[in-house]
Amino acid sequence: MEDQETSVDANEQSNESQNAGDATIASEMEQQILDEISAEDKLKDELAQANDKYLRLFAEFDNFRRRTSKERVELLQTAGKEVIAAMLPVLDDFDRALKAMETATDVVPVKEGVALVQNKLKHILTSKGLKPMEAKGQPFDGDLHEGITSIPAGDELKGKVVDELEKGYYLNDKVIRFAKVVVGA
Predict the structure, then answer these.
(1) Do the Cβ atoms of 97 and 117 come closer than 8 Å?
(2) pLDDT tens digits along 99-132
(3) Distance (Å, rounded) from C-alpha 40 to C-alpha 123?
(4) Biased-composition ranges for Polar residues (predicted)?
């Protein structure tokens, strides 16, 4: 009988340890599930934050794009304002010259007046970065000159600009008008 009691005690201990093991496994599984749920919630929060950050960044970029587009339109509308304002006195001088020509009996003062207005205009344009291009006598360069025609010339003028039909200009070292030239052949 003692053997039976020992056997029952051993079974009970085995069942208790098995139940304790099952409880530990269940507890571990519950903790694992809770950890997974917590990790999932954390990932959802991070996703929501990233999505919010993306939407804010997109809105900020859209505002930037609109603002720069508006500024560009304003700049294009007023780009020549400074140059035009600087040329208004020249326009006034031309008006005065035309009035003076109506009543002038001597041509010499009128010529001097027109030459002064021309010099004033050249000075204003030079101060704004306009530079005339020197083409006559220079070697022909397709990047600077527009060859209108060629004429027979001596060996020393072959491939060089013989005559300039229309002057070329630089604006801040960039060609804004090519010189129309006659090239020696």
Answers:
(1) yes
(2) 888 887 888 888 888 888 899 989 988 888 889 9
(3) 74
(4) 7-21
